[in-house]
Write a structure and sequence with these properties.
mainly alpha, two-stranded antiparallel sheet, single chain
């Protein structure tokens, strides 16, 4: 346990523990690959709760789940396949002993491990919640640009930003018939620009809305066969989204 140590040392303990979880994760994942284990776990209610452990009939499967949860992991499922992920909510037990930046990092990571943002090619949270997570990730990078956790959070920010401004296959930002920006998405974007104009998310959302104002809110257009076709300005915006967003974030001194 961390015990009574300086916050900076407690941070290093968390980093060591997190690294162990991530290095060990492939070995834990492999244990779940067996067909009988997948069948047993897929039959449970999802999202999985520890209270369901007694419902696992096969003793060996039940023991595997108990060991995995005790080892710092939790169970997720995508397209019917069950797999372990790092359970950051357990690391929050140490949040009172670490620095502010580490606590903020653990809060952000636990938010995702407690309720994932996307699954099976679609959002499983609201667009409003996605906007909050995107802003939270950006805020961490801006506030703590030189921490060891910066790269991981920045990459997460870019992923959230793409979900937000590009959409996912099963949660598009536009109508699949007309390729016009969905009204509820436009309202969310306008709220983002109005409330968070100084953020990278707000600036890029404003840029996108400016492009859409010249396309009558069309994200794509149709060719002669009625097929989805790129609009040049929108295509350029999407292609440059990652690099533009990163360029607007503060540089790290490390």
């Amino acid at each position: 346990m961390i015990g009574e140590v300086p916050a900076a040392e407690a941070d290093e303990f968390i980093r060591t523990l997190e690294a162990y979880y991530e290095i060990n994760l492939p070995a834990v994942e492999k244990k779940f690959e067996a067909e009988n284990i997948q069948q047993e776990l897929s039959a449970l209610e999802w999202p999985f709760k520890e209270a369901q452990i007694p419902n696992i009939k096969d003793e060996s499967v039940r023991l595997l789940v108990e060991q995995s949860l005790a080892g710092g992991y939790k169970l997720e499922t995508t397209e019917g396949y069950v797999f372990p992920v790092v359970d950051y909510s357990k690391l929050l037990n140490f949040s009172g002993q670490v620095t502010t930046s580490m606590k903020t990092y653990l809060d952000l990571m636990a938010l995702e491990s407690n309720e994932k943002t996307a699954s099976d090619g679609g959002l499983v949270i609201s667009l409003e919640e996605l906007s909050r997570r995107t802003l939270t990730a950006e805020s961490f990078v801006v506030t703590f640009p030189d921490t060891a956790e910066r790269k991981k959070v920045e990459d997460r920010f870019i992923r959230y930003l793409n979900y937000y401004l590009v959409g996912l296959n099963n949660t598009p930002i536009f109508d699949y018939e007309t390729f016009i920006l969905l009204p509820e998405v436009k309202i969310q974007y306008e709220q983002m620009v109005a409330s968070h104009s100084g953020t990278v998310v707000g600036q890029l959302t404003k840029q996108m809305l400016s492009i859409l104002s010249n396309t009558s809110d069309a994200v794509f257009t149709k060719n002669k066969e009625g097929e989805q076709t790129d609009i040049s300005a929108m295509k350029k915006f999407r292609e440059q989204l990652d690099s533009t967003a990163r360029s607007k974030l503060p540089a790290s001194k490390n």
